């Protein structure tokens, strides 16, 4: 059961949608009326009391004067933004006051890397993706394999729809993990949220997680109250997240007020973990040793569904719409926000000349076991789905399961000195 | 609001764009700030329990409650002022300020926060006190004969903010570029010993960069979390640059931590010459800015208005690199410095250690005394300390020379 646009309205807390002249909340993302880039623009009279005075001040400078110098830049935002587009969008803001400059600041401050294509823009709230469509749609299209503004995204969190996945060879697959993010509707996102909002998200999260039972029963560790012993244990479990140091995150304002209202929750079994108020409101992770992705994914779906239910009981759902799926801070995580992966031993296959091509065709990506931007150690790779948007959760995990199964088969062949050409997959 | 150019008195800077901003502010509010008001004070109030900075010592829920709904005409809010202090709890031994101004009006709109901080930081300076500006180098007595066997180099620096623009924590690219443009024009008009060249950070060649590093002129993108949290590194290196004269004795940083940082320096101990160049250069620059209806931010209570409250008043740090290997190990070294109203740093700048007994000695005060007074303290104080050093070299006592509290 997914939200339609009327549900977007009813689930939003109304107090902050204070007086508009029309008395109606007319600023939401609606997949049906995607043509509207409606914001309550101050029409220059006292009738509309809200505006963004800082943004207004900047308007006295021409677009040329304000336009960022992107000559050294290589990120999605820099590829898409033009002076004309800047001029069109610079006077707008979302209802919470997030502006174009806020969206792009991280991309202006971080020119990028010649080989890694960063996104270079973030959302400050749910409405960002609507108000600044003309910038974000092409960025999304570029980043998510041609996803069009009219495309619909399918959500499927029914683990029964996953075929197999319980028999990946544990001699090769060392561990299995699925993660995603969730944003709580009614609050601004990490680049823009206030302390009050962040604490409210934490409070709701702690309540929702505290109501989990059985296999999911666990405990919350607030970053700011953590004891030395707790901290050490969380580090040993590889659960602890630290204050962001990446300039990409710092430049977008996500480390403000650290460590206020940030924390880690995990179940007693240490197989289900939630990060609160890091790069997204929630990051949800299901993991365990070995290769039973079915179990990991089942726990993931069950846990997520339960958490979502608990939030809804409190009048807060997750940000979602039928075009973008789950709405998250970084456009790269839209759709499912899902990265499902394994740590797998592929010492022979990783040296095979067509390794990269195979991954590409399977719609998978490799990373080192330290995470994004690390190198592989001892022939062990982190293999995960490359896509986020335009495929459902089940579809992505299925691709991962089928793909890893094939990779292991190929590895075994190469171990025995046998050929693997006949196993080369077609492009998925 | 007419623009009247009435000469070199810094009080005669005028307000035309300030008025513009006020006018447009009637129609709009900072809607993000309005949005946050739906949360109670308790919900928004920062957790300062681990904090040790001036802001954390002063801020209370009451003050927060009182000021949170306000904003300056450019939209700068209380949360904007204090963000750097919230994000940087401080150090048990170093007392940081923990707040910044986003524009000239910040000091007025958020007086209830800034006044106690200013008082704390600037030796009890009261909200009713008046600050005296004196950039007449002829009022400095002596200062041309510090012993170059001990005094290796002399330097005076200050900052200036350009009226009509917001400050580095919040300024836009358009504003920053306008400040740069005005600065280049002002600096290029300088002649004689001031004739020089501007090096924008973003167009610098490798060769120019190496030379500026070798000259110890180059400033880099801020890495200090204090500055980053206050938003001063946004859009780096756009509209940032370094200007210096051909003689390499007068240097201006554009759009780093303040709109302008102005530095006069040379080897040896002739502080009189350094200070003269400083005053003359500053005056010439100010004249050009005033011609464009953008003088320096100044008022008779706070003196020169800068981004960090610690730099209000003169914004001046006048100092020398001086060899004091014996005096620095004397039991009363710290006490002597305190009484002379001086402070010591390592030769790498703030927070560095001294190397080889060579110290950076400079005035401790910024607000409540004039430029001439502060440089006089440095000149007189360093002269005394060099004499003390010489005595200690000869194995003699310096007890009779210990100064009274200035």
UniProtKB/TrEMBL annotation, chain A:
Residues 1-21 are annotated as: Disordered. One of its GO terms (cellular component) is extracellular space. InterPro entries: ATP-guanido_PTrfase, ATP-guanido_PTrfase_AS, ATP-guanido_PTrfase_cat, ATP-guanido_PTrfase_N, ATP-guanido_PTrfase_N_sf, Gln_synth/guanido_kin_cat_dom. Residues 58-145 form the Phosphagen kinase N-terminal domain. It is an enzyme of class 2 (transferase). ATP binds at residues 175-179, 238, 283, 339-343, 367-372. One of its GO terms (molecular function) is creatine kinase activity. Its EC number is 2.7.3.2. It comes from the Eukaryota. Keywords: ATP-binding, Kinase, Nucleotide-binding, Transferase. GO terms for biological process: phosphocreatine biosynthetic process. It catalyses: creatine + ATP = N-phosphocreatine + ADP + H(+). PROSITE patterns: PHOSPHAGEN_KINASE (PS00112), PHOSPHAGEN_KINASE_C (PS51510), PHOSPHAGEN_KINASE_N (PS51509). Belongs to the ATP:guanido phosphotransferase family. This is creatine kinase. It comes from Onychostoma macrolepis.
TrEMBL record, chain B:
Its EC number is 2.7.3.2. Keywords: ATP-binding, Kinase, Nucleotide-binding, Transferase. One of its GO terms (molecular function) is creatine kinase activity. InterPro entries: ATP-guanido_PTrfase, ATP-guanido_PTrfase_AS, ATP-guanido_PTrfase_cat, ATP-guanido_PTrfase_N, ATP-guanido_PTrfase_N_sf, Gln_synth/guanido_kin_cat_dom. Residues 150-392 form the Phosphagen kinase C-terminal domain. One of its GO terms (biological process) is phosphocreatine biosynthetic process. GO terms for cellular component: extracellular space. Belongs to the ATP:guanido phosphotransferase family. This is creatine kinase. It comes from Onychostoma macrolepis.
């Amino acid at each position: 059961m997914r939200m339609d646009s009327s549900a977007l309205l009813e689930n939003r807390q109304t107090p902050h949608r204070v007086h508009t002249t029309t008395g109606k909340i007319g600023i939401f993302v609606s997949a049906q009326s995607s043509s509207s880039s409606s914001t309550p623009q101050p029409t220059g009279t006292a009738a509309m009391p809200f505006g963004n005075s800082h943004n207004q001040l900047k308007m006295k400078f021409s677009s040329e004067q304000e336009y960022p110098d992107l000559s050294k830049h290589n990120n999605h935002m820099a590829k898409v933004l033009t002076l004309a587009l800047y001029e069109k969008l610079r006077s707008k803001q979302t209802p919470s006051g997030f502006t174009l400059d806020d969206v792009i600041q991280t991309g202006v401050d971080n020119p990028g890397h010649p080989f890694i294509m960063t996104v270079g823009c973030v959302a400050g709230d749910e409405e960002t993706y609507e108000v600044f469509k003309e910038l974000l749609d092409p960025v999304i299209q570029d980043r998510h394999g041609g996803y069009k503004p009219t495309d619909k995204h399918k959500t499927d969190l029914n683990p029964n729809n996953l075929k197999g996945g319980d028999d990946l060879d544990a001699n090769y697959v060392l561990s299995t993990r699925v993660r995603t993010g969730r944003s709580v509707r009614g609050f601004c996102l990490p680049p823009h949220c206030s302390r009050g909002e962040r604490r409210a998200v934490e409070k709701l999260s702690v309540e929702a997680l505290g109501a989990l039972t059985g296999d999911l029963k666990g405990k919350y560790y607030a970053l700011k109250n953590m004891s030395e012993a707790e901290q050490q244990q969380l580090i040993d479990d590889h659960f602890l997240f630290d204050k962001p140091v990446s300039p990409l995150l710092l430049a977008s304002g996500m480390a403000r007020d650290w460590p206020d209202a940030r924390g880690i929750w995990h179940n007693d079994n240490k197989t289900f973990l939630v990060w609160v108020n890091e790069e997204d409101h929630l990051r949800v992770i299901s993991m365990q040793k070995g290769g039973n992705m079915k179990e990991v994914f089942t726990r993931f779906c069950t846990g997520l569904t339960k958490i979502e239910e608990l939030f809804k009981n409190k009048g807060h759902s997750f940000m979602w719409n039928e075009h973008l799926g789950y709405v998250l801070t970084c456009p790269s995580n839209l759709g499912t926000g899902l990265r499902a992966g394994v740590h797998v031993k592929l010492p022979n296959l990783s040296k095979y000349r067509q390794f990269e091509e195979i991954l590409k065709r399977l719609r998978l990506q490799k990373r080192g076991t330290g995470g994004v931007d690390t190198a592989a150690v001892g022939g062990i790779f982190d293999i995960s789905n490359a896509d986020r948007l335009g495929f459902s959760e089940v579809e992505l995990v299925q691709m991962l399961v089928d793909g890893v199964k094939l990779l292991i088969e190929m590895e075994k062949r190469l171990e025995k000195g046998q050929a693997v050409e006949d196993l080369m997959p077609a492009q998925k | 609001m007419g623009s009247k150019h009435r000469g070199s008195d810094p009080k005669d800077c005028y307000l035309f764009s300030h008025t513009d901003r006020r006018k447009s502010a009637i129609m709009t509010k900072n809607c993000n700030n309005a949005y946050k008001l739906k949360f109670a004070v308790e919900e928004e109030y920062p957790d300062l329990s681990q904090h040790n900075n001036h802001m954390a010592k002063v801020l209370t829920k009451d003050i927060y409650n009182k000021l949170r709904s306000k904003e300056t005409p450019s939209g700068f809010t209380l949360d904007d002022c204090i963000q750097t202090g919230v994000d940087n709890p401080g150090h048990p031994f170093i007392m940081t300020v923990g707040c910044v101004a986003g524009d000239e009006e910040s000091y007025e709109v958020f007086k209830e926060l800034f006044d106690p901080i200013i008082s704390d930081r600037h030796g009890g300076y009261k909200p009713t006190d008046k600050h005296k500006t004196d950039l007449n180098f002829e009022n400095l007595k002596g200062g041309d004969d510090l012993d170059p066997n001990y005094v290796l180099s002399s330097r005076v620096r200050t900052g200036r903010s350009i009226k009509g623009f917001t400050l580095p924590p919040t300024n836009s690219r358009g504003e920053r570029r306008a400040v740069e443009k005005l600065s280049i024009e002002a600096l290029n008009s300088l002649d004689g010993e001031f004739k020089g060249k501007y090096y924008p950070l973003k167009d610098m060649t490798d060769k120019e960069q190496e030379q500026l590093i070798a000259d110890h002129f180059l400033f880099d993108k801020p890495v200090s979390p204090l500055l980053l949290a206050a938003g001063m590194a946004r859009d780096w290196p756009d509209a940032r640059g370094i200007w210096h004269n051909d003689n390499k004795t007068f240097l201006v940083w554009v759009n780093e931590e303040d709109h302008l940082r102005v530095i006069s320096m040379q080897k040896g101990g002739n502080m009189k010459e350094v200070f003269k160049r400083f005053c003359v250069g500053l005056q010439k620059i100010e004249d050009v800015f005033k011609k464009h209806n953008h003088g320096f931010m100044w008022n008779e209570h706070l003196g020169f208005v800068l981004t960090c409250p610690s730099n209000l008043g003169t914004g001046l740090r006048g100092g020398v690199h001086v060899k004091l290997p014996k005096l620095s190990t004397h039991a009363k070294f710290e006490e002597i410095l305190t009484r002379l109203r001086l402070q010591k740093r390592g030769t790498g700048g703030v927070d560095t250690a001294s190397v080889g007994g060579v110290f950076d000695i400079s005035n401790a005060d910024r607000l409540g005394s004039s430029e001439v007074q502060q440089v006089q303290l440095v000149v007189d104080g360093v002269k005394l300390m060099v004499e003390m050093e010489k005595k200690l070299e000869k194995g003699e006592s310096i007890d009779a020379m210990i100064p009274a509290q200035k």
